[in-house]
Amino acid sequence: MAIRQIRTIGDEILTKECKPVREMTSRIRELIDDMFDTMYEANGVGLAGPQVGVLRQIVTIDIDDGNQYVLINPEIIEESGSQTALEGCLSVPGKNGMVTRPNHVIVRAYDENMEQFELEGEELLARAICHECAHLHGHLYVELVEGELRDVNAEATEEAEE
Ligand code: ZN
After folding, report:
1. CA of 117 to the centre of ligand 1 (A)
2. How many angstroms does the Cα of residue 116 sit away from the middle of ligand 1?
3. What is the mean pLDDT for each group of 10 consecutive residues in the chain (162 residues)?
4. Residue-level pLDDT at 153
5. Cα of 141 to ligand 1 centre, how many Å?
6. What is the pTM of this model?
7. FRET label pair with 61: which of 44, 46, 104, 150, CA 20 to 30 Å apart?
């Protein structure tokens, strides 16, 4: 287990298409463990392979609902409804912005034993699934931001000045 370096916006690796995982190996299991460690250390709710420099279709998610989700080769097969909320990304430190996403998704993926399963997500989980799956195809949420990308600390500073 180890903390890996999180790649940030401007790094070309974040714009690349990831390759699917064909078989589970000890290296990939280690990568998944490291991704959880790295995500928790950075107080994130999701992380995707390219964010730690690995162009593989692997996503980890923990939205504090008691589950640790691992999505390998995920594919969103159904989406409905919509939600608009502030979104951020560990690869875009100190920023957030308003993004509209589906409110409900079903994703088909493989687990750590390479067994296929489907996961249904609503609200924050749906948002996290969409956000992380986009990373696997070289996309960042900043492409979807409505209006300006904001400085996370701007509001805090304003409040402190009042
Ligand atoms: Zn992200």
Report:
1. 23
2. 24
3. 94 98 97 98 97 98 97 98 97 97 98 97 98 98 95 67 54
4. 81
5. 7
6. 0.94
7. 150
Could you tell me if 54 and 47 are in contact, meaning their C-beta atoms sit under 8 angstroms apart? no
**Residue type, position 29, single letter:** R
> Which residues are catalytically annotated?
132
Distance CA 94, CA 6 (A): 14
Task: Tell me whether residue 7 is exposed, middle or buried, using C-beta atoms within 10 angstroms of its C-beta: 0 to 12, 13 to 18, 19 or more.
Answer: middle
How far is ligand 1, taken at its centre, from the CA of residue 54, in Å? 14
Secondary structure element (H or E) that encloses residue 8, with its range: none
| Cα 162 to averaged position of ligand 1 atoms, centre (Å) | 32
- Taking the C-alpha atoms of residue 149 and residue 4, their distance in angstroms, rounded to an integer, is 26
* Residue 56, pLDDT score: 98
pLDDT at residue number 15: 98
Q: Both tokens of residue 95?
A: 């920023």
Q: Which residues, including other chains, have CB under 8 Å from residue 6's CB and lie 6 or more apart?
A: 38, 42, 47, 51, 52, 90, 91
Tokens of 102: 């589906």
